[in-house]
Write a structure and sequence with these properties.
about 200 residues; alpha/beta; Rossmann fold; 7-stranded mixed β-sheet; 4-stranded mixed β-sheet; 6 helices; 13 strands; about 30% strand
């Protein structure tokens, strides 16, 4: 049986993602080893913290090149900061290069509401995706962020939420997906999304 590699690069909610996968009966391994990422059936890139620090850690450990090389070969899911790193660049603190697996940039949310955006918010789905099979429009998921992706291609926008302004909640380009929210903290809805992702490589 194959496994999903959960990328360990020193930032991220690794254990809760692994626990959610285990609950679903999906084999996963927390690893920062390039060989393990290459052998995996799928990759999850979690992340908590600031874009520049996370991007630097990926580069320092050579994991940026590995993840780019695996894109197109297997499904990849970025979660929270992990989703933001999929974009071409981030503007948190300073302009910083991302993985360039999704066209666009990551910017501070221009909202009249308080930041960070913390809590449960509902989803709409501008474009269909197998990642959200069985998830109804209006379903609630859990967010914690002050920055969000701005996709250059509207077709890449898989889900949005409203926080005073439309906010990108999920993105997809080929076999690369990203969720700004935390599916591992989003109850049954989040589990369904992870279940769907686990089925993409079968």
């Amino acid at each position: 049986m194959g496994y999903t590699a959960i990328v360990d690069y020193g930032v991220g909610n690794l254990k809760s993602v692994a626990n959610a996968m285990a609950y679903l009966g999906l084999e996963s391994r927390i690893t920062g080893d390039a060989g393990a990422l290459e052998k995996a059936d799928a990759i999850i890139l979690p992340g908590v913290g600031a874009f520049p620090d996370a991007a630097e850690r990926l580069r320092r450990w050579g994991l940026d090149k590995v993840i780019r090389a695996q894109a197109g070969k297997k499904p990849i899911l970025g979660i929270c900061l992990g989703m933001q790193l999929l974009f071409e660049r981030g503007e948190e603190g300073k302009l910083c290069e991302g993985l360039s697996l999704v066209g666009g940039s990551v910017r501070r949310i221009e909202t009249p509401y308080k930041l960070p955006h913390i809590g449960w918010n509902s989803l709409t789905f501008p474009n269909p995706s197998p990642l959200f099979a069985g998830v109804e429009a209006g379903s609630y998921v859990y967010f914690v962020h002050s920055y969000c992706g701005v996709a250059s291609d509207p077709a890449a926008v898989l889900a949005e939420t409203d926080y005073g302004v439309p906010v990108l909640a999920a993105v997809g380009s080929g076999g690369v997906y990203g969720c700004q929210f935390h599916p591992e903290k989003s109850g049954e809805v989040g589990l369904q999304i992870l279940r769907n992702f686990g089925g993409l490589n079968r």
